[in-house]
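W.,

You were right to be curious about this one. When I first looked at the sequence I had no strong expectations either way, so I just let the prediction run and decided to look at it fresh. Below is the sequence, 373 residues in total, followed by the output.
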Amino acid sequence: MRFERKKVLIVDDSTINRRILADILSAEYQIIEAKDGESAILCLRSFGDELSLVLLDIVMPDVDGFAVLQEMKNQGWIDRIPVITISSENSADNIDKAYALGVTDFISKPFDTLVVKHRVANTIMLYDKQKNLIQMVEAQIEEKMRISNLMIAILSHIVEFRNGESGAHVLRIHAITEMLTMALDQSELGCKLTNEDIYLISTAATLHDIGKMAIPDEILNKPGKLTEEEFEVMRTHSTIGAQMLEKIPFSKDEKLTKIAYEICRWHHERFDGRGYPDGLSGEEIPLAAQIVSLADVYDALTSPRVYKEAYSHQKAIDMILAGECGQFHPALIKALLKIEKKLEFGLTDDIMVVEGSELLHKAVEEMMHGANY
């Protein structure tokens, strides 16, 4: 089996410096050279995660090392590719600025062969260990999530099949919730949602109608319009679903259960206070419930029911914008308009999981970096 050497990108406007570093490292690593910052960014775009390390000069004409670091930070490369700066300009300000942009270590000019070899090897080794740790944690979480999602899917499908609908409704709610949440302008909402939050909200969304298990068949599947008394019974599904989750003793304190409770109880509340069961309005309604509320309304409008035909995508959007289905947070409406083309052409009944594995990976990376691994 042929061993492929790790790739190291050397960025320096001095040909001599690049040659010296290449001579020191070429026996153990595959060397890629960039003569300036602009070339470095092109190499980063081209090789991406294939790079194990960047040796970066700070002082270069036009696009300097700080500009390269800023671009790496903007693109998220700095979290995956370690950078060691190589410079004779090691002032305190430069060091502070470089560390703030994510630099791992410094090597001063002129180069000491042993220092270069050891620092390069140690940095690559530490990042490899971190990547392996993230993969191990991700695999463990993914397995737990797979089992959890399987149980939720089974339970949700029971609800949907009993309701005379296909189980695809559950998958569509999951997908639409995820897309809406990812499209939200969080600054407008005044909150910070992590990738883990998005993953949990979209997963918990699949339980939004669990309380319908307690609604009598003659009401649940009535082909015509419900009477006022029947509608009052139907309305109880939100509180019943919340009570079901509240009575699970072993998971009551789990984040997923808490989010699912909020969604079950309040996904029929409206921003103007005209929803049910508690008549909450505005920011009183938990964000997860607001998101699922909009996802549920869109899917209900565009899906056939025993009492109606499906509306077209455009008709559903127009009805929501006109307030015919109640009011929603302005930020949610903006998010809906951002994803409306995906909704119109991207949803099928085959599989609705939107970027789920990538979202999980990002969530694990967030968790690991937050723990300072």
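Here's what jumped out at me. The chain has two domains: 7-111, 133-370. And, maybe more interesting for your project: The longest helix spans residues 113-162.

Coffee later to discuss?

I.
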